[in-house]
Specification:
It is a single chain. This protein is of the alpha/beta class. It has two domains: about 5-145 and about 245-280, Periplasmic binding protein-like II (D-Maltodextrin-Binding Protein, domain 2, 3-Layer(aba) Sandwich); about 145-235, Periplasmic binding protein-like II (D-Maltodextrin-Binding Protein, domain 2), CATH 3.40.190.10. It is built from eight helices and ten strands. The protein has helices spanning about 5-20, 80-90, 105-110, 175-185, 200-205, 215-225, 255-270, 270-280, and strands at about 55-60, 100-105, 120, 135-145, 145-150, 170-175, 195, 210-215, 230-235, 245-250. β6, α4 and β7 (about 195) form a beta-alpha-beta unit.
């Protein structure tokens, strides 16, 4: 395995524990961390914004930057979900591609208290109450869906809708949002098999004790790349308890409201959904199951 790929996978292991999957230490999603004041398009143009460097927008992420969020470990190329989102925010704020400067900031350092060397950071960072005590978050640009993972040669792997999974025997970890998702959204004909740990869930799939498992989408990317390479992401679906990611800014940043404004505008126009569809649903082979 190339060194760059190995480093990327090791980073993903760490990120999954801290970002997209969330944990009890983070005290859950923040209730008001993304609240914004009234701003207008005129307020949120490059010549009106107080950025770290006049006329430039400094954006941070970690290294390695892995797919499907970044491609070729190069945030500057505009390819990958979060790279595309960052450039779309910049464009909404009146910055051209040449005006965007990328810097490397380790994941844990991004939400540590204190001054920041960037205008905003995009790095699969979950919006949580604890983190919001030290930094600002924009309006969410992504809510991590749930994903169905099955072995490539299984009947479940050919499903194209939630209805196709009605007779599937699912495995899922106890006391997780994934369990809620199976019971409330898929509603299969048989009760899911519930396991104590995520490792037990993965083992059950590999040993074909279950037909498919349900995890959040970022975890599904990791499982099919590393732990279960013979597995495939059947698809993703929205469900209760989605994990929201936001652009992270220095606490009380003068840019927070405008970054939120930009994200909300991208959502309203449909551009944000198109970016997600391009880089997660299609490129990352995680089609939406309805």
């Amino acid at each position: 395995m190339p060194l760059s790929r190995l480093l990327s996978l090791l980073f993903l292991i760490a990120a999954l524990g801290l970002a997209a999957c969330g944990d009890d230490d983070d005290d859950g999603p923040a209730d008001d961390s993304t609240a914004t004041t009234e701003v207008s398009a005129e307020d949120c143009q490059a010549d009106q914004l107080e950025t770290r460097e006049a006329g430039k927008l400094t954006v941070a992420t970690d290294k390695p930057a892995f797919p499907p969020y970044f491609e070729d470990d190069d945030p500057t190329n505009g390819e990958g979900f979060e790279s595309a989102v960052a450039y779309a925010i910049a464009d909404e704020l009146g910055f051209g591609e040449a005006d965007v400067e990328w810097i490397v900031v380790p994941f844990n350092a991004s939400f540590a208290p204190g001054p920041k060397d960037f205008d905003f950071d995009v790095n699969q960072i979950s919006i949580t109450e604890r983190r919001a005590q030290a930094v600002d978050f924009s309006a969410p640009y992504y809510t991590a869906n749930q994903a169905v993972v099955a072995l490539e040669d299984s009947e479940a792997a050919s499903a194209t809708s939630l209805a196709d999974l009605a007779d599937t025997q699912f495995g899922v970890q106890i006391a997780t949002t994934s369990l809620d998702a199976v019971e409330q959204t898929i509603q299969p004909s048989s009760e899911p098999q519930v396991f104590d740990t995520s490792n037990d869930v993965v083992t059950a799939l590999k040993q074909e004790q279950v037909d498919a498992i349900v995890v959040d989408v970022p975890t599904a990317f990791f499982l099919t790349a590393v732990q279960v390479p013979e597995g495939t992401i059947v698809g993703q679906f929205s469900a209760p308890g989605g994990d929201e990611w936001g652009a992270l800014l220095e606490q009380d940043s003068p840019l927070t409201d405008c970054v939120s404004y930009a994200i909300n505008s991208l959502r309203d126009s449909g551009e944000l959904a198109e970016i997600e569809r391009t880089w997660i649903s299609e490129k990352a082979n995680a089609p939406v199951l309805e």
